[in-house]
DNA sequence: TATGTTGTGAACCGACCGTTTCAGAACCAC
DNA sequence: GTGGTTCTGAAACGGTCGGTTCACAACATA
């Protein structure tokens, strides 16, 4: 069988995810990834093949461990009317907690979309699917909150939620107040009957 | 007085702006800037002091030559009711023209916000002010379109326009259809009386 | 034409980039 | 134990990074 790895793969990927999140793909240096993961580069390259391989694993972990758990109440068989509000106000609060990754660096995938690595086809598909996943979840959240409203109105509201979240992620690094304002605005639309 | 520069400063800055727009600050290499501007690095450093100095000039040019001319109808003393619709549908069309910088790379300032350079204080202020400028312009555009509507409703609509534009910029690189959908959604809200 | 100033090209700087190599350590099966 | 396989640390790879240096070209002035 051979020598036993001295690390836990999940922990390594999570640590790398944090580095990519803050610094971006091109800005995350191999020494920084070594330091964060505690692994020597030879082990990183042995396990993941390349910096890009580690990045892909980090993106998968971001989707599985960060995005989808928070979206779960919005994609469950039964969606509670408050689910969409809970999600958005939870995000609003997270963007205010200084020091946390989300507050300082927004969203790994939105950041990726704005960088040259976003031109890569595989990355492009991943981020586009992520946006669609967000939109679908918000669509169900809005439907659960305003079941009586007409379909077009609900769709526009779900679109507004999607745009608010994406723009909040995109701007939080430079303008946390503006990011929170975007979320507050759609929260107000969701509060009115 | 000394030797006459062999270049036109404006042309140099505009060429550099394009490189930063596509590649981002950290991704724009000095050789790439030399090639785009036609200047040797010694001339670049003589004129702008550093890569960052050239970037700052490029950002200023982006605001003066790209952003503000398009926003002008929305900040004029008299704002036409169609101004906001004209702006958004113009942006929608621009995001669809393949090959153009806007379609492939979104917005220089949004991209900057999502990158590590966004942590710089001066950059932070610049992008935050840009967002505020956008929001103010859209506010006037919405006011001109729906003068009879209540203030809160107009504010939420202006917020939705701001978020739609920012998110369209943030996503156009990976998801042009999603970006256009965000704009279409607010355009629909602006079409209804 | 002589002088002082400014712009330009080429060569070079140390630092860092992502990646590879390789010897040896740690484990399994026999 | 022995052999085969896998993981790990250190060192080194060529290439590129942003930035500097310097000799010289090109101009304004006197």
Please give the radius of gyration of chain A in angstroms.
18 Å
CATH top level label of chain A: Mainly Alpha
What is the fourth-level CATH superfamily of chain A? Tetracycline Repressor, domain 2
Q: Which architecture name of chain A does CATH use?
A: Orthogonal Bundle
Average pLDDT of chain A: 97
Please mark out the parts of chain A with pLDDT under 50 across 5 or more consecutive residues, or reply none: none
Principal-axis shape of chain A? elongated
The percent of residues in helical segments of chain A reads: over 70%
The major pleated sheet of chain A works out as: none
Biggest interface found: A-B, 48 and 48 residues
| Number of structural domains of chain A | 1
Describe the protein.
2 copies of one chain form a homodimer. Helices cover 74% and strands 0% of the residues of chain A. In chain A, helix 1 crosses helix 4, helix 5 packs antiparallel against helix 10 and helix 8 crosses helix 9. The first copy, chain A, starts with 8 loop residues before the first helix and ends with a helix. The model of chain A has no long low-confidence stretch (mean pLDDT 97). The first copy, chain A, has one domain: Orthogonal Bundle (Tetracycline Repressor, domain 2). The first copy, chain A, is elongated and about 60 Å long. Chain A is mainly α and 193 residues long. The longest helix of chain A is centred in the first third of the chain and has 25 residues. Chains A and B meet through helix 7, helix 8, helix 9 and helix 10 of A and helix 7, helix 8, helix 9 and helix 10 of B. The structure holds a DNA duplex (30 and 30 nucleotides).
